[in-house]
Write a structure and sequence with these properties.
methyltransferase; transferase; Metal_cation-efflux_comp; transmembrane; transmembrane helix; mainly alpha; 186 residues; 2 strands; 6 helices
């Protein structure tokens, strides 16, 4: 029963995010935003769908038993969810699942973006480990973490190029680390 409630929570959360992303996409495109990375976006969607299917299958085939370390893993999961909300709220209408860049916009440098260039990708990376580990779906954690690294290596490159061309991204973030929380080098 716990597994099904947890899985339902993740599905509802992801669907809610897609609704937010669609509203933001409409607003951004009305303002003149350009979309980048259309070619690889389908692979990101596929990765996330297959991740959820793999998690479901692996966990249920093993009896959907919660990990003996569930208090620590669940705490980590809740922290990632708080960070996810903080990230989405910090970006506001600029948050999206697609790469949509508004020409000449100033990049968001508040919230977690004060320390990291890509906090949302860090959160997803942690989720790809924590979600399956909570129900001992070890293969899902390993395989999809590796696949996520491959997909993000393309995604981040495209996103950063688009932001450098169309916004003040380069001047704002050129000295900041991509994934580790450190202050900019002075």
């Amino acid at each position: 029963m716990v597994f099904y409630a947890f899985f339902l929570f993740i599905i509802v959360e992801r669907l809610s995010e897609l609704v937010i992303a669609k509203k933001n996409e409409h607003w951004l495109k009305e303002k003149g935003a350009k979309e980048f990375g259309k070619d690889h976006y389908k692979y990101i969607v596929l990765l996330h769908v297959l991740f959820l299917l793999s998690f479901w299958l692996e966990a249920t085939l093993q009896g959907a038993e919660i990990s003996p370390f569930w208090p620590v893993i669940l705490c980590g999961f809740f922290i990632t969810q708080l960070l996810r909300v903080w990230t989405i709220l910090s970006l506001g209408r600029f948050w999206n699942t697609k790469i949509l860049v508004l020409p000449n916009a100033k990049v968001v440098a508040k919230g977690p973006y004060r320390w990291l260039r890509h906090p949302n990708y860090v959160i997803v990376a942690f989720e790809f480990v924590l979600i399956p580990l909570l129900f001992q779906a070890y293969w899902t954690a390993v395989i999809f973490s590796l696949l996520n690294i491959i997909v993000l290596s393309v995604r981040i490159s495209v996103e950063e190029q688009a932001l450098c061309i169309m916004t003040n991204y380069k001047s704002e973030f050129h000295q900041r680390n991509r994934f580790f929380p450190v202050r900019p080098i002075k």
